[in-house]
Fold this sequence. Notes:
Layout: H1 8-18, E1 30-35, E2 40-45, H2 59-78, E3 81-87, E4 96-104, H3 110-113, H4 136-148, E5 152-154, H5 158-176, H6 179-187, E6 211-212, E7 233-234, E8 241-247, H7 252-271, E9 275-279, H8 286-289, E10 301-309, H9 322-325, E11 326-329
Parallel strand pairs: 1-11, 6-7
Antiparallel strand pairs: 1-2, 2-4, 3-4, 5-8, 8-10, 9-10
Amino acid sequence: MTTISVPRSVVTSLVEDAVTAPSMHNAQPWRFVHREDSGTLELRGDPARELPREDPDHRALHLGCGAALFALRVAAAERGLRAVVELLPDPADPWRVADVRFEEAGSGEDELAVLHPALRERHTSRYPFTEEQVPPEILDGLGAAALLEGCKLVVPGAWHTETVMGLIRTSELFEAADESVRTEIAAWTRTGASDEALSDEGIPAYALGPRQYDVTSPVRDFDTGRQVTGRTAEPFEKHPQIALLGTAEDGPTDWLRAGQALQHVLLQATLDGLSTSLMSQPMEWPELRTLTRDPSSTTGHVHIILRLGYGPRGRATPRRPVTEVLSFEG
């Protein structure tokens, strides 16, 4: 098939869908450049939105860009297009994470198009979930979604879940002892104070959820300094249901694949009626990250922890206007 010349209006709508993807601290670490002479849409990491203390290797940045890339593929499929993706097309330009061309969609895009309604329904939920167990067939479907993107979703057993929860608690202690990390987190957290400027990035106060009455669930509290007023303390699920998303290798290409798998899993989970949240704290400390995997698993490197269950879905967090993340060049 040959590349289709896509009008600016369609490119704009595709990017509007793409940026609904999640990213660490809602930093939105992406930029898009449409090369109109070749019909190529470049996806670029944005160095102005990196997190040098928590993400020095840019793993999380690539995960966020990968999630946006998958959302772009879904948006294209919904519009009768096939997104042809080349990851890391220029070794001399590591910020150019993917090139995308568009062709007429084949039958394989139908399965992606089905996910489109979930793009704007999926929201991170930092609220308590019920103790209702996710059925095995739904978990199997989420695992299949990850496999389609070349990744593996592991649902840990009881001992492994307790190990991961212990690592989360340890990472919280590491964070509490590191002022530079706390400062970086605070820069992306909104308190809702009356004198605080409106922002289209970061985590708004309304998305923080309640404090945990008894810390039993892997939900990060971004307001450890208790700057946000009016937050209640509530009990969370005592038996959290988590899944670990990982790859066999651990390089930028793997991180981009993991980001696509993450978004695929989250969108499928949304269609399945699940609420979700993400946890990266143990991944931010090298000495803890290696301990998150099951030694008997073929998943060599864990990139993110997913919390799954039934409960409030949370509200949409802000996104930068498309005019700030998309440019057109000849």
